[in-house]
C-alpha cells in the first residue's frame, strides 16, 4: 500500500508542476508571498529573507534546498547571497522549471538541480554549509 500511495502522490505533484502559469496565478502569488518567483509553497519573501539572515550563506557557501519544487527559496537565496545551491525534488516538471528559472536568473554556474527525494539524497555527509526544506515534510 505504501508504494501505491507514494505513486499517487508523485502523480499529483507531477500534474501540479506541469500546469502552465497565468496572470491570475501570478497575482495570487504576489498577494500571498510578496513576489512572483515561481513559488509552489507558502514561504513568503519575508520568511526567505529571514532564512538569508539566519543561514549566513555567502559566496563560497553551499546550500541544499530539499523539496524545492520550482526552486523557491533556494534559487532566491543563491541569487541574494552569491552562494552555490543544489535544489532537489521528485517531480521532473518541478526540476525542469527550477532549471529554467536558474538560467533566467543567470545562476546556472552556481546552482545545480537533482531529481531526488529528501529521504534518499545522493550526497555525502557534510557536503553543505546550510540546508533548507521549506514547505516539505
Describe the structure in your own words.
The protein is α/β, with parallel strands linked by helices and 137 residues long. Helices cover 44% and strands 13% of the residues. It has 5 helices and 4 strands. It has a 4-stranded parallel β-sheet with strand order 3-2-1-4, with helices on one face. Helix 5 (92-104) links the parallel strand 2 (84-89) and strand 3 (111-115). The longest helix has 17 residues, at 2-18. It is globular and about 40 Å long.
Per-chain topology:
Layout: H1 2-18, H2 23-33, H3 45-55, E1 62-65, H4 74-81, E2 84-89, H5 92-104, E3 111-115, E4 130-132
Parallel strand pairs: 1-2, 1-4, 2-3
Measured between the Cα atoms of the first and last residue, the distance is: 20 Å
* Quaternary: single chain
Outline the low-pLDDT stretches: none
Number of strands: 4
Q: Largest sheet, order of strands side by side?
A: 3-2-1-4
Order of helices and strands: HHHEHEHEE
* Tally of separate helices: 5
Short description:
The protein has 137 residues and is of the alpha/beta class.
Features:
alpha/beta; 137 residues; globular; four-stranded parallel beta sheet
